[in-house]
Every structure is written in C-alpha cells, then in structure tokens.
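I hope you will forgive my troubling you with a question about protein structure. The record follows directly beneath this note:
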Amino acid sequence: MTLDDPGLEREVLAMFSAKAVELVGALATFPSDAAALAHTLKGSARAIGAFGVADAAGDLEALIENGGDPAKALAELSDAVAEARAAIDAILRRS
C-alpha cells in the first residue's frame, strides 16, 4: 500500500491512529450508521495489518446487524484500538 515509502507509511499509520479513535468515539454513541462505521474501521485496520482491530470491528458490526448488545464488543474494540495505537506510536518513534 505504501510502496516501501517510509514517509508514506508513517503518514498512513498516523492517519489510521487518529481515525480509529474518532470512529470508536462515534461508535460509542451507537448512531444509526454504526454498522457501516464498524465496517469502515474493519477495512482500514486490515489494510494496515491491525488484525486485532479488524476482528473486533467485525464482531461489533455483526452484533449490530444481528440486533445483539454491542456494549462488550465496543469495549473490546476500544481495547484493540488502544493496543494498535501503542504499536503505531512505537513505530513512529523509531522513524
């Protein structure tokens, strides 16, 4: 995705980190488009290799679509995003 361009890699990771926090915040209000927001986060996470975030977002998306209680899944997604952001921060500090 970044064509081995370290500057572009840092930019993509920083954008994902910021957007993930924004999406989790939006999801916390359980808006009418919550399933679509979770789907967006799932795809973005897969694109950068944050598979824990992708899996948690997919779980949340499925619960929302099937009418389940998404509270626990949202907490798990929030934890996964925090873990991914810590890893991203470490990568960005090395650069």
